[in-house]
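From: lab user (bench 3)
To: helpdesk
Subject: output format question, protein + flavin-adenine dinucleotide

Hello, I'm new to running complex predictions and I'm not sure whether the block I got back is the full result or only part of it. Here's what I submitted:
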Amino acid sequence: MSEKFADTNQQRAKFGHAVVIGGSIAGLTAARVLSDTFARVTIVERDRLPDAPDFRRGTPQARHSHTLPLRGERILEEKFPGLFDELCTNGATRINGGSEMAFYLAGGWHEVKQQSTLISMTCSRPLIEHAIYQRLVTQYRVEFLQEYETVGLTVDRLGRYVTGVRLRPRHASTAEEMVLLADLVIDASGRNSQAPTWLAQLGYEPPRETIVNSFPGYSTRIYQRPANFDGAWKTLSIRPTPPNGARGGLIIPIEGDRWQVTLVGMGRDYPPTSEEGYLEFARSLPVPQLYEAIKDAQPLTRPCGYRSTENRLRHYDKLPRYLEGFLVMGDAVFALNPVYAQGMTVSVMGSVALERCLEVQELNGQEITGLAQAFQQQLSKLASGLWKMAIREDSRWSATVTTEDSSLPQHRLDKLGFGNLVRRTRSRTTTGVISTNIS
Ligand SMILES: Cc1cc2nc3c(=O)[nH]c(=O)nc-3n(C[C@H](O)[C@H](O)[C@H](O)COP(=O)(O)OP(=O)(O)OC[C@H]3O[C@@H](n4cnc5c(N)ncnc54)[C@H](O)[C@@H]3O)c2cc1C
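Helpdesk reply: Thanks, we reran it on our side. This is the complete output you should expect:
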């Protein structure tokens, strides 16, 4: 094992060098926060990050519609002031309240008074990610080590503190490993994170895992927005509704005057990726508006599928023993069913938890000791509500499978979540469910 990337400061310096594994939403926002308190921050990313907004292998979900609720937007805007104006300059669309989003759920069109908390701007996922990446490169002290895969962790002599990451060049012919030394390591490598295995290899108990799977599947295609579209709505959402309404779909405007059109099927009713099958599935939705909008539109891509969508929680907040200086965030901890569009919000919550915990550690003069446990518990506090919302909604599908006892009493779950938002909204309106003016 060579020390090609060894840090020159080999002492455990207070807030010296932080390494973040994964250069996507969670990792990028974490690096932004770390750059305030660490002398050096390095993001290790398996992919080469593109020079312009584009799809890449490490984030296959980016081909599918991504909407960002207001809560996530606010966190990102706080960390990167002016980001959303910049996105709009580059083609993102502001979505305004009830009037611009057609929303079909449970057999009716809804005007959702709090709609702007669900969605307030749309663009492609690569546009968001690229804008953040560019900011880190140009405005913050963040280095990128691209096309390197993290394959494990290194620890001090007593095995108490993380001291770095083990790396392998992605395209090298040799399998030689290298070590990048660090005082703090954050795993933000997504749903397929190997951190539980890395911890187990070092003698630490890996986190308990809860999986709640309602077997949703996606198929997405990009269209040119038809020039003759009458503009009755900017975004169209037909949400699957348990127990029998397994099929749904979403049209969002993205940069380049395009529509990203995602079809969703719950309970293994997967939308096809053939051209004919895709249109047929769209035609089978409970209301015709989505099909009517796309049937004569010009497709720009082939339909693309995705099925790795289960709710998966790794309980890092309840470990019996923590490897000091090793934190985990984003989908690597809370991976939610994407139907609820909360994944990016949970991912950026990691940076909020990190900021709070670093402040406390600094105030108490505790350096890195205790940070891992405090962070995982803080993250859990922030994100558990969204997890409970997702599993509550998914538990309403008969096909849902749970690998562990993760169920909460119904009266507690009823206080949470998306379904509750819609119910509240309906009860606050004078006419109950309001028909919108779409034909
Ligand atoms: C179909 C679909 C639709 C979705 N729609 C929405 C939506 O509408 N709204 C929303 O908020 N969320 C949505 N999500 C969820 C969202 O995509 C995720 O929550 C979010 O991307 C998680 O960010 P992350 O940074 O934790 O992980 P990821 O975005 O998965 O990124 C992980 C990164 O780590 C890198 N990596 C992995 N392993 C290694 C390694 N060993 N070494 C180095 N680098 C590594 C990868 O290349 C990648 O860059 C959707 C998800 C799916 C699947």
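A quick orientation on your result: The radius of gyration is 22 Å. Let us know if anything else is unclear.
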